[in-house]
Amino acid sequence: MTSFTALRLHQSRTHTQPDCRIETINLDDLSKGDVVIRVAYSSLNYKDALAYAGRGKIVSDYPRVTGIDFTGYIETSSNEMFKPGDKVIVHGFGVGVNHDGGHAQYARVPANWVMHLPHGMDLLDACSLGAAGYTAGLALHWMEQCGLTPQKGEVAVTGASGGVASLAIAMLTHRGYRVCAITSKTDMADYLNDLGAERVELTPDFTENRPLRSAQWAGAIDSVGGDMLAWLLSTAQAEGVITAFGNAGGFQLPTTVYPFILRGVKLLGINANSPMPLRQQVWQRLHSDYLPPRLQTIRRVISLTDLPRAMEAMLCRKTHGRTIIDMTL
Ligand SMILES: CCC(=O)SCCNC(=O)CCNC(=O)[C@H](O)C(C)(C)COP(=O)(O)OP(=O)(O)OC[C@H]1O[C@@H](n2cnc3c(N)ncnc32)[C@H](O)[C@@H]1OP(=O)(O)O
Ligand SMILES: NC(=O)c1ccc[n+]([C@@H]2O[C@H](COP(=O)([O-])OP(=O)(O)OC[C@H]3O[C@@H](n4cnc5c(N)ncnc54)[C@H](O)[C@@H]3O)[C@@H](O)[C@H]2O)c1
């Protein structure tokens, strides 16, 4: 492993969008850590696409290997928790943002960011879940902690064809929830029905901004933010539970206090960068009762060379499901 291939962003002298290069680098080029991992799979998340485009304050310094999640084998470790060949997953902790990430054949990270895969889980399925599956699982975990059950009523999932949302639909329907998939893509109905959605609705018209509307949802999982999240709050049932983790459609929240004080609606914030004990708890469930079926339908496997094109497509809302990078291709 003297040298290997990586996708790195470099600061551009002329543009806010960084220069993206697939290049040969050495271990010494990577951020520091006591564990070296041979990356088997990494994935494309919205945050990687934002980093690629230089949008938002995602990457703190350059050059930077992108990739906020990955699975692979321990190559070397000076920490006794890990031995060569162990199967592991890494996501969060600033990986791919202020520490080199998973869009490379090798990654080097501190040992306390690394998690063994749940026993029996394979590297491809684990990466197909990745940060996205963890986010969907964490949302479901907190919603159920707040009393959501399938008997309470329908659950809405917005940005429905996206990575987190596709996994959320498969997880929810597998657990017996009735799901309404809300999408702006007219050609995605068959895909969303295949994942188990009972109904597919097009993004509503937000022009009439009302504090409350007819109550529909016992719960909602929102990738979009902005007007969409405000609309979900205004259409939630009494004691409905809404999880917010996304900003794909905007970061403002033009709402009122009425859903909270007249219907007792619960708005839960979801941050996938959780402490390790919570990660381990949710990952165990992702390998048991939360394990979504249909991962093969949700994932598309590409090579590192194809990744810049996939990032462009994600920014234009032309991707669906999860995009997985196989580092051996
Ligand atoms: C997988 C996870 C995801 O996909 S999350 C979605 C992708 N993330 C984004 O789009 C957010 C990108 N970030 C931003 O646009 C900016 O950092 C935002 C949030 C607007 C804040 O910028 P600005 O108003 O300039 O403030 P600032 O950078 O001086 O920070 C203010 C205080 O907030 C903190 N902060 C910043 N970023 C984070 C973060 N990611 N997590 C937790 N805290 C954060 C800063 O440290 C700062 O606090 P302090 O003053 O240092 O105590
Ligand atoms: N809080 C966290 O820890 C956390 C973790 C993972 C993802 N996220 C966020 O969740 C969101 C989804 O991430 P992903 O990786 O699934 O991305 P994705 O691109 O796969 O999915 C986003 C979906 O939202 C849709 N969308 C975008 N703009 C829209 C709009 N204006 N109206 C309606 N739909 C719109 C897209 O078409 C796509 O289907 C992103 O905002 C991401 O940053 C947050």
TrEMBL record:
> Which top EC class is given?
oxidoreductase
Query: Taking every annotated instance into account, which residue ranges of this chain make up the domain Enoyl reductase (ER)?
Result: 20-325
- List the Gene Ontology MF annotations in alphabetical order: acryloyl-CoA reductase (NADH) activity
Q: Which UniProt keywords apply?
A: Oxidoreductase
The EC number(s) given in the record are 1.3.1.95
The record's annotation in Pfam families points to: ADH_N
- Alphabetical list of CDD domains matching this protein: MDR_yhdh_yhfp
Is Oxidoreductase one of the keywords UniProt gives this record? yes
Q: Report the InterPro entries cross-referenced here.
A: Acrylyl-CoA_reductase_AcuI, ADH-like_N, ER, GroES-like_sf, NAD(P)-bd_dom_sf, Zn-ADH-like_protein
NCBIfam families the UniProt entry points to: oxido_YhdH
Q: What protein name does the entry list? A: Acryloyl-CoA reductase
Query: From which source organism is this entry?
Result: Alcaligenes endophyticus
